[in-house]
Amino acid sequence: MIVIGIAGIASALLALQLKHVKEEYAILITLCGCLFILFSTLKGIQSIVTILNQITSLSTIGKGYIKILLKLTGISFVAEISSDISGDCGFDALAKQIQIFGKISILVVSLPVFTEIILAIGKLLS
Prior knowledge:
By secondary structure, the protein is mostly helical. It contains four helices and no strands. The protein is elongated and about 70 Å long.
């Protein structure tokens, strides 16, 4: 955790110094810092997947729902990080389009869950 914090602060300070000299280098430093932090967090995701698999084996929740949950989480993280990087680079319109695409992608991936909920409600009401 401390390494990630130090890497984030170091990349921010370095990018801040280079922003006045060459803005392109500042963007690259920021992007490299973001990618380093992203790949560092992927190690933690493996333990989360392991725990979710254990929970799935102990309960009646289908693995398909856990896969959907992980996809939704991944889509939200990728959309948020991409949008933030685009916004920091000054491309606010692109950042907003990435956010909209992420929200629509989440809706599309979650449609099977909504369908199951509506079918269950229909069975309860009839």
